[in-house]
Specification:
Blueprint lengths: L6 H6 L4 H12 L10 E7 L2 E7 L8 E6 L2 E6 L20 E6 L4 E9 L2 E8 L28
Antiparallel strand pairs: 1-2, 2-7, 3-4, 4-5, 6-7
Length: 153
Amino acid sequence: MRNFDFAPLYRATVGFDQIADLMDRVLTNDTSAQNYPPYNIEKTAEDAWRISIAVAGFTEDDLSVEVRENSVLISGARPEEKEDKVFLHRGIAQRAFERRFHLADHVRVTGAVHENGMLHVDLAREVPEALKPRLIQITTNARGSVIENKAVN
């Protein structure tokens, strides 16, 4: 696998640490170990998404959705069952799992629903008012004097 040196990026920029960290995280992930449980990510609106995870056999009490820093951690663990059952074929995996999804800035978890063997986690981007674009009114002064500073909003 290729190794990239992000030192020049750190020396020449300020505040772009997240991009380098994201690239490092993507390049070091072992994708073969992260295939259970299967999941979908769908865009439900302009600034909203839904993560749907197949959790057949898990109850609400077995599942956990936790928000930590800029990520959402979804985990599931079933209590130990007695092994008195005899399976001829065991194709439904009910092993413990932990899935982490990294969130962009200002994206937060708005809710989670468990129905029909699926766990749906809803996300929404909520940009603070101070970071939204503002329109600044341009005025002219016919006398050529200094215009007083006034708050636009």
